[in-house]
Design goal:
single chain; alpha+beta; Alpha-Beta Plaits; two-stranded antiparallel sheet; two-stranded antiparallel ribbon; binds iron/sulfur cluster; metal ion binding; metal-binding; electron transport; transport
């Protein structure tokens, strides 16, 4: 599991850091940062989800795995091509 913070949305409430100091840090301006490049160590997935759920700005999100993204993109491409061929016939 990997998480990220949208710095445009983060307002520095620091709830994430209070809930999960193992996963977040705060910079000199109060903005939150993910530790370990956002990679959540095994066993801390629920803590990460708790932080995601408690961010009032919806600034924290889980990064879709590269494999999941590739599969989704391939499926979308196949569906688009099937629809296009049905419309053409
Ligand atoms: S709880 Fe959300 S808005 Fe607040 S510091 Fe953490 S990421 Fe930023």
């Amino acid at each position: 599991m990997r998480i990220q913070i949208d710095s445009e949305k983060c307002q520095g409430h620091n709830r994430c850091y209070a809930l999960a100091p193992q996963l977040f840090d705060v910079d000199d301006y109060g903005a939150a940062l993910v530790l370990n490049d956002g990679i959540v160590p095994a066993g801390l997935e629920d803590t990460a989800r708790l932080a995601i759920a408690n961010c009032p700005e919806y600034a924290i999100s889980e990064v879709a795995s590269e494999v999941a993204s590739e599969v989704a993109s391939e499926v979308a491409s196949e569906v688009a091509s099937e629809v296009a061929s049905e419309v053409a016939s």
